[in-house]
Structure formats: C-alpha cells, structure tokens
Amino acid sequence: MTRHIYSIGQHVSLDGPGRTYLKLAGVFTVTRLLPPLGVELQYRIKSETEAHERVAVEQELRVVEVAKSIVAAASRLSSADVNAARARGCREQQSRPSV
C-alpha cells in the first residue's frame, strides 16, 4: 500500500496539474490525510486566508519552505553574531574597487 508523502502540519502549495480554475496561490497547511481516490492519495488542506478547507490529490501539491524557519534560525543568533556579520559586510563593501 502506498503511503502519504506529506504529513499533517506540513506547508504545501497547490500548484500541480489539475483543476487550475479552482486553485488559489499561496501556502496551505495539511490538516488531514485522506484515503486514496482510486490510486491517488488525497489530503485536506487549509489556507490561513480562507475560511474553508480544500481536498487535493498528492500530484497537485508541492513542499513549501516557510519563511518562519528563516526567522527562527535568525532568532538563534546572538547579537554578537549579528554585529560581526554587519562588520564583515561593511569591510567587504569598502574593499571593493570602484568602477
């Protein structure tokens, strides 16, 4: 039996082949793993901008890297790390020859 690729809570986009006239661009969160429709695995997905949920088959979904992970990584930096990176950037700009 085939297993779902995506998991509950994972962020996906709805951009695969299929019902393009019903699609909304953006990030969706997988809320439920549904039984297959024939041979296609299905998911219930929800957008933060919509009140309702949608059902999508696996081939319509793509993984999305959410910017929150970038913010979370940045929050782990100390202020000394941030200041060092800024200083390095300033030195690199000063050492470039002007054109």
**Shape, principal axes of CA atoms:** elongated
Kindly report how far apart the N and C termini lie. Answer: 63 Å
- The helix/strand series, from N terminus to C terminus, equals EEEEEHH
Question: Mean of residue pLDDT?
Answer: 76
* Count of separate DSSP helical elements: 2
- CA-based gyration radius: 21 Å
Instruction: Find the count of extended strands (DSSP E, 2+ residues).
Output: 5
Note the main sheet: 5 strands, antiparallel
Beta-strand portion reads: 25-35%
Low-confidence region ranges = none
Give the fraction of residues assigned to helices: 25-40%
Task: Name the strands of the widest sheet in spatial order.
Answer: 4-3-2-1-5
The structure class reads alpha+beta
Summarize the structure.
The protein is α+β, with helices and mostly antiparallel strands and 99 residues long. It contains two helices and five strands; from the N terminus they run βββββαα. Strand 2 (27-37) and strand 3 form a beta hairpin.
